[in-house]
Amino acid sequence: MAILFRSINTRPTFLLLFRSISASVRFIPNPNSQSFSTAPKSHQKNLIPVSNLFQRYGFPPSEIPHFLKKNQYLLNSNTSEIEKSLKILSSLNSSQDFVASVLCSCPSVLELNFWEKWQLDSSELGISNVSLMAIRNILEVSRKFDLKPDDVSRCIKCLKRLGFTENTVIRVLEAVPMVLMSSEDKICGKTEFLIRLGIQKNEIDQVVCSFPGVLAFGVENRLKLLIDEFEGLGFSLSEVRREVIRDPRILGLENGEFSQCLKLLKSLRCRLPIKENIFRHGAFRAAYEVKIRVDCLRKHGLIYREAFTVLWKEPRVILYEIEEIEKKIEFLVQEMEFDVQCLVEVPEYLGVHLGKQIVPRFNVIKHLRSIGGLGDEVGLRDLIKLSRLRFYNRYVKPYPGCEQTYGRFGGGSEVRNRHPVGMWKLFKPQNGLLVSGAILFLLVYCPCQGLLSPSSPGHAPGCLKAVEQRGSYSESAYLKGFFFVRICPQESCPQNEMLFE
């Protein structure tokens, strides 16, 4: 009876649970499907016409379902109004990707009310040959802040009155389109700040074209504080002006960031030639080079503290180009399959040559791993910090197949001399050479008495005794680095004064 009562009570609950689960599963759309079967019936009737319309204006067919799913209000819109908006939009730029690029970033520009104000050609704004990115940014800002073509044209004319070329105006619209919201007084205030810094009017266009972001910064709360920081660190305005013209991105430094880079340079503990090479163009440029490399390391996943640690432990990274650093990090992550955090533990990886050391060693380890020749996994520290000879003796020499893979010490590779043959080898006499009528004196250099006289070879404390031989030459003494003078019996012979090393 109890069992029957339990089954009666639980059966309705189980059925209700099953029905709720089945009902929810029935309406879950397939993420891989490109159909709109889950859309309401009122939407489905406009699905095919709207999809064909977007495809006709250059929208990729594979992206149409996802785009319409995110903007389902378009399926309720009038198809003729969408077509009018697409026609006006496509008239602004003839590129096939222009419509899709604008709509993916700002689909609300399809509203016909917006295009009723923007039925004009791009040349009417005051610039010609406008890039795709500039037009897209103009439309996005205009749609967001309800700007009219007259507002955009007024800002462009203001930039041209200040002496900016059309190419610079386009660069500004591509990088900082919010300048359209700035008043003429604010834009003029930033150019006047550059003039007070010592930059000539004909140089301002070059600075803004290289770094348009300067027009997005405030003068009082950003730019002046940065210049005050430079002066507080002991740099003159003339030096700052010279470096800004060379690389205007310096004006994009955060307040206090430059001081940290300079502090790192002062605390470096490295060999003197490396330090001199870092400061070869002055402390200002060296600190900015540190900042660029910190940004490069942060872009690949390190935080500020870790990036500064890597540069402090391996100062040679400051001397390498950004392209070389990125190639090494890309090879580390994609080919070697190490995490970028390994650079904090083994910063020496960024200080060695990629093609001459990293790639050959990794190829050897990869080959040994494929044939099962590695007992323990080789970490990045063992791969980089071992000397060439120790790495060769440990991973290459015991395995004949690795000779050609390593390449550095392979049997078929030709080892070139790093230095030319010394002069002492050219003048080295043969073993047992008999010199008729001449005497060879082996001389010893004494720190206290200087070079001993050949006529009276003697012995000095801490020095070897000079050897006098007639008709032959002591090979063992020569190999010890002695100097020798060839003396002719005739006193007037000039060879008496020749000294060979």
TrEMBL record:
Instruction: Supply one GO molecular-function term.
Output: nucleic acid binding
Pfam families from the xrefs? Answer: mTERF
Q: Which UniProt keywords apply?
A: Transcription, Transcription regulation, Transcription termination, Transit peptide
**Xref: Gene3D superfamilies:** Transcription termination factor 3, mitochondrial (1.25.70.10)
Q: Does the keyword Transcription regulation apply?
A: yes
Q: Which GO terms describe its biological process?
A: DNA-templated transcription termination
Q: Record's SMART domains?
A: Mterf (SM00733)
Family as reported in the entry's similarity comment: Belongs to the mTERF family.
* Record-linked PANTHER family: CGI-12 PROTEIN-RELATED, TRANSCRIPTION TERMINATION FACTOR MTERF15, MITOCHONDRIAL
Q: What is this protein called?
A: Uncharacterized protein
The lineage, from the top, is: Eukaryota, Viridiplantae, Streptophyta, Embryophyta, Tracheophyta
